[in-house]
Amino acid sequence: MKFKTPLGTRNVRMAQVLQIGPSPLPLWLSFVVAVFVTVSAFDDVRLLWDGDSGGDIYWLGIAGTVAYWAVWMALAFVPKYVAPAFVVMLAIMLPQAVIGGQLLIAFGATAVAAYRASTRSLAIMVGTFLVWQTCWILTVSDLGASALWAYYLVTPLLVTPGIAIKLLREKAIRAEQIQREADETAARTAMEERTALARELHDVVTHGLTMIAVQANLGTLSKDGGEQHEALVEIGGMARRSLDDLRRLLQTMREDEPRAAGTPEAEFSVLTNPALIDLSESLAEAQKRLNALGFPTRVATSGDLDGTPNGLRSTVLSILQECTTNAVKHAGVGSECRITVAVQGQRLEMVIDNRMTRGKPRLPVSGTGLVGLRERVARLDGTIEAGPSDGWWSVRTVLPFTGRHTIH
User: Is the same domain home to 173 and 286?
Assistant: First the structure.
């Protein structure tokens, strides 16, 4: 069986159809049904209590009346009990050659149960009722075998409307559930993207302002006009690069819009494509910047850096920026730095070390950079370890080439 939903066609097995539960009934309608059935049953019991026939009481008829009362009360309030109550009612009705109203009530109960009871309970009721009809007509009543065709035909005709309503309702519920799950997934994805953008915004701002602050300190302490001019030029360049990064993030945070070819937005989106990130150039730029700030830096690479998947390049660049920024923050001028990047087989390994110095950091510590990197690397099935080792502060990252290469 197939259900068509706004999100496509959904296959439903018969076992799933049998698990469809009862449909709701307004409380006021349940109350009306309960009152009507109770009054009707009370009147039937009064009529069956024949006090003028020598004290004979039609106990079997009274038991059948109580049984159909139980069936309808179950339909009104507790539909999970309607199937056993219906089977008991049929068992009481079977020995009676003349049934009358109870048989009509049995047909009506199956019609209402098609909507009100679970599909599994309905299957039990209809199956039992068909067997009962065969036994009753052939062995108890005087109707004859020819009457079976009419009884067999009436039963499915009565339950068809209720089943159709139940399946339509179940279809609507499934479509609503699928849509709700899709909305929740979209909201969760959007939250993850906003969190990733917030971490990247932190990295951009922290890296840029740290470098600007260090260059400003160097320019202030220097008495040489040339060095001061060079520091100002570097501050200007770093400020422009930071503004470009902020612009990229703001563009990403905007709703997706088609960019006309040749517009600044289209050109900018091309320039920020992760596939265009050159890791070798980024390492050389980081080395140059650290050397200029007074941190002697050695860079060693091995393997094919250009073979790094596009989905990992922005993460590698973020780790490089965060670790070099932390080195400038926490270490004194003149501290050595080592950057080692190796591509081995299907993974990239990067180790960034800086010589540790005593005392408090020269610039404020946010405490969120490494936490964000750990979350980001974990989503890519990688590992990152940070800690002191023989007088060095070391950050070692391993990123596999196969896995969830999410681009942030």
Answer: no
Q: What is the dihedral of CA 136, 140, 145, 148, to 10 degrees?
A: -20
Tell whether 166 and 298 lie within a shared domain: no
CA 206 to each of CA 92, 118, 152, 211, 318: distance values in angstroms, whole numbers, following the listed order = 83, 61, 80, 9, 11
Buried b (16+ CB within 10 A) or exposed e, 103-116: bebbeebbbbbbbb
Task: Give how many domains the chain has, as a whole number.
Answer: 2
Task: Note if the pTM is more than 0.85.
Answer: no
Phi/psi at 157 (5° precision)? -65, -35
Query: Could you tell me which residues come within 8 angstroms of residue 139 by beta carbon, excluding any fewer than 6 positions away?
Result: none
Question: What is the per-residue pLDDT for 273?
Answer: 56
Give which of 123, 39, 112 is closest to 71, Cα–Cα: 112
Q: Which of 182, 205, 234 lies at the terminal end of a domain, its last residue?
A: 182
274 Cβ contact partners less than 8 Å away, ≥ 6 residues apart: 310, 311, 313, 314, 407
At residue 407's C-alpha, the angle toward residues 284 and 259, to 5°, is: 100
**Do residues 23 and 116 touch, judged by C-beta distance below 8 A?**
yes
- Asked whether 377 and 323 are in contact (CB, 8 A), the reply is no
CA distance 279 to 407: 16
CATH of the domain at 358: 3.30.565.10
Of 105-109, 148-152, 246-250, 350-354, which gets the smallest average pLDDT? 246-250
Residue 148 lies in a domain: yes
- Predicted confidence (pLDDT) at residue 272 exceeds the cutoff of 50: no
In a domain, 232, yes or no: no
CA distances from 17 to 5, 10, 12, 159 (A): 16, 13, 7, 15
Indicate whether 176 and 281 sit together in one domain. Answer: no
Task: Provide the pLDDT for residue 8.
Answer: 44
Residue where a domain terminates, one of 129, 149, 182? 182
Residue 334 lies in a domain: yes
Provide the CB-side half-sphere exposure for 325 (13 A, CA). Answer: 27
257 located within any domain = no
Q: What domain range is 83 assigned to?
A: 2-182
